[in-house]
Amino acid sequence: MNKQHWQRVSPWALLYFVIHFAYRFIKDGIFNLLPIAVVFVTQVQDKLFWGKIGASIAVVGLLLYSFAYYVNFRFCITDDHDILLNKGVFKKERLTLSFLRVQNVNVAEPFYFKPLGLVNCIFDAAGSVAQEAVLPGVTQAYAEDVREQVLTYKELQQVVEDQQTTDSEQVAETLYSLKLTNKEVAKFGLMSNMAILALAALAPFMNVLFDFFEQAVINRLEAFYEQEVGLLINAAALAVFSILLMLVMLAVLLSVIMSLIRFYNYELYFQAGKFKRISGLLERHQLSVSLDKVQSIVIKKNLIARLLQRYTIQCFQATSGYVTGAKSKQSLVMPVLKHEQVNQTLQRVYPWLSEANFDFKAVKFKGVEQALLLKNFLFYSLLPSLLFGLFNYYVVASHALYSICIFVMLSCLVYLSYKRYGYYFYHYQGRYYGIFRSGMLGVQYRVFELYKAQSTRGVSTYFMRRVGLKSLSIQLASGNVSLPYLKATLADEIIDFTLLQAELEQRNWM
Amino acid sequence: MFENHQLDCLPQHQSIEFKPLANNALLHAQLSWLLFYVPLMAVLAAACFFNQNFASVAQTPLMIGLPVILVLSLIFNIISVRLKGVAVRNHDIAYQKGVIWQQVTILPLSRIQHTEIHRGPLERKLGLASLRLYSAGGMSADLNISGLSHTDCKDIRQFIQDYIQHKQAPEQLQNNQSVSAELTNE
Predict the structure, then answer these.
(1) C-alpha span between A469 and A490 (Å, rounded)
(2) Residue A467 — φ and ψ, nearest 5°?
(3) Is residue A469 located within the same domain as residue A326?
(4) Is residue A199 classed as helix, strand or coil in its secondary structure?
(5) In terms of residue numbers, what domain contains A361?
(6) Does residue A451 or residue B10 have the better pLDDT?
(7) Among A244, A279, A314, where does a domain finish?
(8) Same domain for A260 and A407
(9) Which one of A311, A330, A345, B186 has the lowest number of neighbouring Cβ atoms within 10 Å?
């Protein structure tokens, strides 16, 4: 670091801090206050008086904290192309962010800064979502200037990298295209859980909807069934069952509609190291994903997809954590693919695999150790079944058959989950890949190049160490992959080799 | 590991010798726990004092349970701090922690996106600091090492920054040369 010119933000930034901390307080802190709220509601006599006192203390505290935060907040753009932030009141923090690590610089203009001509300069890094690199209340010109500095610097780095890549990979690539019929897209609606999104949108109106259903539908259905089949079975139960069936059908229908809205006339092109997807009913949405940026791909096949013999592929890029919407924006979805299409796509993402005639389905995965089956059987099958059985026997006094059914069902699920775990490592022309398989009723394969690993973790308990076992977890820029209950020597070998790849490989991972 | 490739001898992370945390780390852990625990006990005691119904039901279990939990927690903290350790190698940083689930996390220095040093009031008083290292894709810090001395923290951060700058320097030089050559040609 050669020179550091520390600067303060404008006093108007205080407004940002007040609003920001008020929002954080409501979002994160409200649940922590629940015990106090319980004591307040149950124990305090003069609630209005003490409520006012409490609210006043909270407001004054918020203002004081925001002011102290503003006073301590300083930033610096160094000559070494780093952004430094000093912040914090009780906990002093120093944040160092290199220009190269900045994915994008966003300039946001909140409504309260509009009359003042000020903006927030937000540095979008591929780090954690818990991180904040925001310069609040800077002038538009300054924010644009900083953005220019960062992006110019990054472009300079990129120019040569691109040159090197194109020089070394002057391979004539043919255009690959994939078009899905809307009938296939509708199948994706059946496979996916997009209805949940639609139901989430309806959540605020649920109470009204339930009231409406009860008054307008259930009561009438009940009357109808009573009249028609009242003597045979319980009319009220039949009415509720009909409503549930209708809701399931509605969810499936919504899912299909959502799927069509998103993937209508789905077209996927691949050329010059980039995937381009065009789809959408209401809006034709284009999404381009460069292969260099793909961190890992996931091939999924859930229960319904197994019946339909279709797969879904997701290409993940580096994410900034699981912030709302960020995950979906960063991933390219290729729905309802057949087995041969999966192989073709896989070979585009990792082109050198095509030379090896790689077929992911024919891969012989190695499983995890049997101790996992025993542990899961004990904790997730035997214990819950015993508890259920005791509850059944002493409280409900119902038939023991229910407990046996629960035990058999849980045991089957535990066994399926154990059998699904698998791993396969593949080496081709100096490149090393890992394929991790997991699932229960469905199955999912995650394929990634080892050098893209961000960190590794080995976990073991006392009993695991005694029998020489270890669980392994590899953090990728697109999420976490893990394998439980491996032989400790193997887990260590995987960790060591992955680290060696991450540390010695010269190719850019991002 | 690979069916189609024989691995050569690898540097092994099992042989890492972890450096224990600073001397005051245990005191910090105990005080932090007490700062949470004592107010909780005070609230429960106040509830017993003002609410006789609650006191008649909960007083005896609380009188027995709370001191037991306190002692167990303090013992747990001692074991936990003793099992923690950090090691900086040439190309990565390793952190060991955990009592029941013992884990070793290793983060290559080239993957670090940014670093943070946190110092709370207690940590400042005890000359300690927490180092947080972030890589891509995580929900929070990949490594959150608390209980280091402030000097160690600064040294590690400096080492990481130097490593990243040295790694970038040849690339930058190469890039700048290529760009200037390109501009001259134009």
Answers:
(1) 9
(2) -105, 15
(3) yes
(4) helix
(5) 294-367+421-504
(6) A451
(7) A279
(8) no
(9) B186
Does a structural domain hold residue A114?
yes
Together in a domain, A260 and A220: yes
Strand B85-88 relative to strand B92-97, pairing: antiparallel
- Of A248, A279, A310, the residue at which a domain comes to its end is A279
Residue A261 shares a structural domain with residue A176: yes
pLDDT of res. B168: 66
> What band does A412 get if pLDDT is binned at 50, 70 and 90?
very high
* Within-domain flag for A375: yes
- pLDDT tens digits, A133-189: 788 888 888 888 888 888 888 777 766 565 555 554 444 455 678 888 888 888 888
Whether residue A352 is contained in a domain is answered as yes
Distance CA A96, CA B98 (A): 28
Distance CA B140, CA A320 (A): 10
Contact residues, A window 127-186, toward B, CB-based 8 Å cutoff: 127-131, 156-157, 159-161, 163
* C-alpha–C-alpha distance, residues A283 and A278, integer Å: 10
Q: Which residues of chain B neighbour A510 with C-beta distances below 8 Å?
A: 136
Task: Chain B: give the shortest CA distance to residue A456, in Å.
Answer: 5
What would the pLDDT profile of A85-94 be if each residue is shown by its tens digit? 888 888 777 8
Q: Which residues contact A221 (CB under 8 A, 6 or more apart)?
A: A238, A239, A242, A243
Number of domains in chain A: 4
**Which of A:481-500 have CB within 8 Å of B?**
490, 492-497, 499-500
Taking an 8 Å cut-off on Cβ atoms, the answer to whether B141 and A130 are in contact is yes
* Rounded Cα gap, residues A195 and A30, in angstroms: 30
Question: Which residue, among A88, A87, A68, A93, has the nearest Cα to B118 in the 3D structure?
Answer: A93
Can you state the angle between helices B52-83 and B25-50, rounded to 10 degrees? Answer: 170
Q: Given strand A285-290, what is the order of strands in its sheet?
A: A176-179, A267-271, A274-279, A285-290
Q: Tell me how far apart the alpha carbons of residues A485 and B168 are, in angstroms, rounded to a whole number.
A: 38
**Do A54 and A154 belong together in one domain?**
yes
Do A460 and A383 fall within a single domain?
Answer: no
How far is CA B4 from each of CA A433, A488, B109, rounded to the nearest angstrom?
12, 22, 30
CATH domain B85-172 topology: PH-domain like (2.30.29)
In a domain, A305, yes or no: yes
Say whether residue A354 is in contact with chain B using an 8 A CB cutoff: no
CA A500, CA B92: separation in Å to the nearest integer? 10
d(CA A166, CA B38): 64
Across chain A, mean pLDDT equals: 80
Are A142 and A234 found together in one domain?
Answer: no
Helix (H) or strand (E) holding A121: strand A118-125
Where in chain B are the domains?
A: 22-82, 85-172
